[in-house]
Amino acid sequence: MRVGFGLGSNMGDKPANIAQALKHLEERQIARLHAVSRTYRTPPWGVLDQGDFANACAIGDTSLSPYELLAEVKRIEADMGRAPSRRWGPRLIDVDILFLGDHTLDDPELTLPHKELFSRGFVLAPLVEIAPDLVLDGVPLSQALARVDLVGVRPWEEQG
After folding, report:
1. Does the annotation mark 82 as catalytic?
2. Fewer CB near the last or first residue (10 Å), C or N of the chain?
C-alpha cells in the first residue's frame, strides 16, 4: 500500500536526523521508499520561540496496517531519542504518516490523511516535489500548495 511520510527536526544535526529516520524506515522494513524529497529549511510553526526546522517527505510502500505503522514510527522517534515535550515544541525527530493508501481515519491517535497536511507549506512543498500529481481526499496537492504560505520554506542548501 502506498504511504507518505513527513519528517521534521530542529535539534542537533537536523538533516542527519531526517536521514537517520529514513534509514530506519527502510532497514526495519517498515516501508520500501521510492521517492525522497530534498530537505527544506522552514521557520517554526505553532510555537515560534525555537530554531528553524529541517523538513522532508518520502513516499513508499508498506504492508502494515495504519496502527502498526503508527507504532513503528513512534518506535523510531523513541529509539532516536525523541523526548516528550510541549506541543509543536523543539524535537529531535518527528515522523508523521501523511497518508496510507485510501485509508481515511479520524480518531485521537491517528488521522488519515494527516489533518494538517493541506495547510502546511513545509509538508506540501517537499511532497509536491516528489509527487506533483498526487490527489488526496479529492484535493490535488499542487493546488493545495498554491494556496498556502510558503514564506521561509526553502531548500536546505539555500542561504538567507
Report:
1. yes
2. C
Condensed to tens digits (0 to 9), the pLDDT of residues 5-40 reads 999 999 999 999 999 999 999 999 999 999 999 999
- The answer to whether 107 is a known catalytic residue is no
> Of the residues 96, 102, 107, 133, which is catalytic?
96
**94 is known as an active-site residue:** yes
Rounded to two decimals, the pTM is 0.94
**Does residue 96 have an active-site annotation?**
yes
CATH number of the domain to which 51 belongs: 3.30.70.560
* Domains of the chain: total: 1
What's CA 16's distance to the chain center, in Å? 15
> Which residue in 94, 137, 147, 154 is the catalytic one?
94
